[in-house]
User: Which sequence fits this backbone?
């Protein structure tokens, strides 16, 4: 074995990772409460672009914690993000994670309206008529429909995590959300993903 | 709405995305069969680093397709990757996706041995005594244990997808796998993730 491995006990791997991230990030100024979110996104992706990409509306961390700790549920646009969100901590507060992407009624609504299932699943969420946090990690069409639903007064999310990834309307869908007077955490630009959406939820859930 | 959106029909979003990726990637040479994998990783992450990061053992795509189409199951180290892998296509060939990370016997074995659950879950996979594909998207300790199990003659994977992400032993765990005479697809360096591991599986499953 020519390759050298660092000896780190299982329980210390995460702390050691955050040490390395902090060191490599160097001096950096963070809006209040956002440091743990930025660093966890870098931890999840090994991509330091998130130190520049992440945009936070004013006071969003406080508002997000109030929602999550108050038992508000999370709606996401991918089964992967649903799998990745810490449901034990969220459930302790009384919240659940919903993903409607595989629901037959959503598939049918999307066919009828000629929209994506992600957009149709936002309408299903709005129809729930309850306070919700949105964690969008895949589909810009979900963000665009959320924008429209908010403009039409049909929903008032407690938080939007806007982290779709890709090449078609991804950048602009995030800009739309940042025009709104709504608490948001947005990964500006093309990057994001269900891992990033889940990781932002978890960074909030892990805060003391 | 000052933000401009491109009009793309739901069914055409993926094709349009791959068009943009191909265009921005420019002239690029790919080992046989690997182009779809590289482009899907970029599609999943919006990160063109994957055009350089991905390493393929000789003839790996052919060997991988033979395994998956022959009904070989996939073992992964995260519930997120399990959620992301196309189980409909895999199931059509007769394969399943296993993730042992939440299993009580794995948690206990990890406690007793002072190793990570990811490492213990590789031992559980080896004990199955069947042909397997491994898709590692999180834990370098899983790759290191796989390396040891292979060296000890306890398992002979049909394919290793090595895409853990992070800062502690991630780079070196991938180098270890690339020393072996085993079919591999490895995301060299720190980057990777459960989304990348799942996406490489899906790129293989979607091939005609």
Assistant:
């Amino acid at each position: 074995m020519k390759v050298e491995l660092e000896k780190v006990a299982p329980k210390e791997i995460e702390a050691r990772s955050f040490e390395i991230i902090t060191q490599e990030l160097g001096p950096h100024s963070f809006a209040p409460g956002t440091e743990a979110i930025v660093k966890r996104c870098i931890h999840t992706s090994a991509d330091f672009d998130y130190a520049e990409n992440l945009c936070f509306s004013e006071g969003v961390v406080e508002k997000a914690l109030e929602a999550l700790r108050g038992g508000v549920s999370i709606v996401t646009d991918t089964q992967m993000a649903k799998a990745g969100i810490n449901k034990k901590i969220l459930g302790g507060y009384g919240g659940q994670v919903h993903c409607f992407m595989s629901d037959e009624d959503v598939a049918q609504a999307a066919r009828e309206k000629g929209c994506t299932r992600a957009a149709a699943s936002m309408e299903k969420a709005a129809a729930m008529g309850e306070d919700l946090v949105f964690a969008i990690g895949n589909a810009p069409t979900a963000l665009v429909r959320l924008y429209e639903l908010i403009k039409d007064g049909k929903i008032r999310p407690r938080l939007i995590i806007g982290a779709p990834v890709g090449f078609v309307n991804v950048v602009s869908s995030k800009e739309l959300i940042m025009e709104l007077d709504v608490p948001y955490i947005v990964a500006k630009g093309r990057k994001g993903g269900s891992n990033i959406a889940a990781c932002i939820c978890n960074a909030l859930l892990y805060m003391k």
